[in-house]
Write a structure and sequence with these properties.
The complex is a heterodimer of chains A (497) and B (133). Chain A is α/β, with parallel strands linked by helices and 497 residues long. In chain A, 29% of the residues lie in helices and 22% in strands. In chain A, strand 2 and strand 3 form a beta hairpin. Classes of the chains: A alpha/beta (497), B alpha+beta (133). Strand 18 of chain A pairs antiparallel with strand 1 of chain B.
């Protein structure tokens, strides 16, 4: 059955638009990305003045408004979901009048826009019912609310993606294996974990520990994404990697280890590529966890999650030294940065003892429930300077270094220690467990300061002006493609000799 | 990259210039750009390579390899830097780093970038071409 995925903020907007004190039926279009499932992008209300018919028991927009909105939707490669309210009903159902109207509308729309998707929804004070076009008929659609814990009044009867399998589980070895988990978050919680597919992007010091913990918690499937190979300098932090793994892809080394950790029941997909080059592997992930050291990759994962209304947990650590020099590395030694943030093999480094330097170790975990709380860009976390350097070719990097546009410090590897990674990884997994099992409301953002042993939890809200999930953003648009194009000015406007 | 926005911006540029837009390559080519006085020839292509993170980050600009500046070597022209798909020196990188230190996706666009490029090419040794213009 198809699903209509809708953020908590969009539900709120829909209710505000359609359910007013005068108890009149009202109408709005929900523009939705079509990825098989429908992904709510935005609510476009129809003013009372634009209604052809409106009362406490019926409503319909003027035909010209219907045509305009539907055309606009299709121009943006979105699908229209035509929503109206039953203001007297808690958990509404389509009435016989609704069904007749929808049938006539379906005929009209299919004639004008054949092969285009569309749907209908009816909104009550608590519930939402929806159907979508399925070729020759309309079929029921499940509702999933992203960030449902943000709603004062939950939407009744919705589907959670973390539903766990029902029925007998005839695997006594697994029951024994996860006995202590079940005592912590119940059989239902454990089943939910076992039913999910988690994408872990970045299998370095942080990601390898996250993957290890998820494997031991009993998640159903892990998708590991990282283009890098194991290097000697990784071995102090890369859980699951040993000396003989040097030179092998990180995802392969860690996969081998995880299969042992899980007793062989876990499915692990190892993808030795940049996440930007293997988007398809994220499609079946219920949650994406980003443990990357690249701004570009973080940005990509955030945008992907927002477009597809998928949960994204972004985690990171940072070590700052007072003089800006990475602790433990001789400041006179310019170590050229590789793509993987590690020094090239054979590049000499001269570790030195620091003299009582005050080093700050921080970690953070940022849960993105698209449209319901702040995404990566809502919080202004994108680092343009770092992104620019990351996207330079080696030749361009050399040229810019020569011109003094890039300091040697900017290319030096970052300091990293396993215990900070471990703290942050555990917090990341903790947030994921809250999200999946529902045992606690997951936090929006956690900041951890290891040097002070302080943890701060923050509540966030999406920004209307956010270029990614805001008003002009890509919330719920799915993977649209507008293709290549050639534009020609008309004769009057063209630049001429 | 937000394809919808890049497409729309390319279309807007297309109101004034002939534009070739490639979604897969994340590239916009102004097929016939009017280079300012001092450049020869005056009409030649210009190319923008959009980063994966567009519109959060500024595009990379390449001027045509066929143009030259008659008043000396421009400071911002990186003759030795070509796009990775360019083996023949068809394009040369124009360093706009100093002009767009704080690219703002809300305020900036390909149209604004093109305006900036006209100013920069008109004062090719200035870090603040808008002021000089």
């Amino acid at each position: 059955m198809r699903t209509l995925k809708i953020s908590a903020s969009t539900v709120r907007r829909l209710r505000e638009t359609l359910l007013k004190d005068d108890e009149q039926e009202r109408f709005a279009f929900v523009y939705a990305g079509d990825e098989g499932d429908l992904l709510a992008n935005r609510v476009v209300p129809v003013d009372d003045e634009s209604m052809a018919r409106q009362s406490k028991t019926a409503c319909r927009p003027a035909p010209v408004v219907e045509r305009e909105r539907v055309s606009e939707c299709y121009n943006k490669q979105l699908a229209p979901v035509l929503a109206h309210s039953h203001p007297f009903s808690e958990t509404p159902r389509f009435s016989s009048i609704d069904v007749d109207s929808m049938g006539r509308f379906r005929e009209w729309l299919s004639g004008l826009f054949p092969d285009q998707s569309f749907g209908f929804a009816v909104v009550g004070t608590s519930g939402i019912e929806a159907v979508a076009d399925a070729g020759t008929r309309l079929e029921a659609v499940e509702i999933e609310v992203i960030g449902e814990w943000k709603l004062d009044t939950p939407v009744a009867g919705t589907r959670s993606r973390f539903h766990g399998e029902s029925g007998d589980d005839d695997r006594p070895s697994l029951e024994q294996r996860y006995d202590r988990n079940v005592r912590a978050f119940g059989v239902d919680g454990q089943r939910r974990l076992e039913s999910v597919t988690i994408g872990v992007v970045g299998i370095g010091g942080l990601g390898s520990i996250v993957a290890e913990q998820l494997a031991r918690l009993g998640v159903g499937e892990l998708v590991l994404v990282d283009p890098d190979s194991v290097e000697a300098s990784n071995l102090s932090r890369l859980v699951g990697a040993y000396d003989y793994h040097v030179g092998q892809p990180k995802v392969t080394a860690v996969r081998e280890h995880l299969l042992k950790s899980s007793g062989g029941e876990l499915t692990v997909d190892a993808v030795p590529k940049r996440v930007q080059d293997c988007t398809a592997v994220l499609e079946n992930c219920d949650v994406i966890v980003g443990c990357v050291d690249s701004v570009t990759a973080r940005s990509y994962c955030n945008e992907y999650a927002v477009k597809h209304l998928q949960y994204y947990i972004d985690a990171g650590v940072r070590i700052d030294t007072p003089d800006g020099t990475p602790a433990g590395i001789d400041s006179d030694d310019a170590v050229t940065k590789q793509r993987s943030d590690e020094p090239r093999e054979g590049t000499p480094t001269n570790p030195v003892q620091t003299d009582d330097q005050s080093v700050e170790l921080t970690g953070y975990v940022h849960l993105v429930a698209p449209g319901s709380n702040a995404c990566f860009d809502c919080l202004g976390r994108h680092d343009q300077a770092a992104a620019r350097i990351e996207q330079l070719s080696p030749t361009e990097q050399d040229a810019e270094q020569e011109r003094g546009y890039i300091d040697d410090d900017e290319l030096a590897p970052e300091p990293a220690v396993i215990h900070l990674n471990g703290q942050c990884a555990s917090k990341t997994v903790s947030v994921l467990v809250d999200l999946v099992t529902g045992v606690h409301t997951p936090p929006d953002f956690i900041r951890y300061e290891e040097h002070d042993h302080e943890m701060t939890e923050l509540t966030t809200a999406p920004s209307e002006n956010c270029p990614t999930c805001g008003r002009d953003g890509v919330l719920g648009v799915g993977q649209r493609s507008f293709g290549d194009a050639h534009f020609e000015p008309d004769e009057e406007s063209a630049v001429s000799d | 990259m937000k394809r919808g926005r890049a497409y729309e911006e390319a279309a807007k540029l297309g109101d004034r210039y002939p534009i070739r837009y490639s979604e897969a390559n994340r590239r916009v080519i102004i097929e016939r750009f009017d280079y300012p006085e001092g450049w020869n020839p005056r009409f030649a292509p210009m190319r923008y390579d959009l980063p994966e993170t567009y519109p959060r980050d500024v595009p990379t600009v390449y001027v045509s390899g066929t143009v030259s500046y008659e008043r000396g070597k421009p400071e911002h022209l990186l003759n030795r830097i070509h796009p990775t798909d360019d083996d023949d020196g068809e394009w040369a990188k124009w360093c706009i780093r100093d002009h767009f230190v704080n690219w703002d996706p809300e305020r900036d666009s390909l149209v604004k970038l093109t305006s900036m490029m006209r100013a920069s090419l008109a004062n090719p040794n200035s870090d603040n071409p808008f002021n000089e213009a």
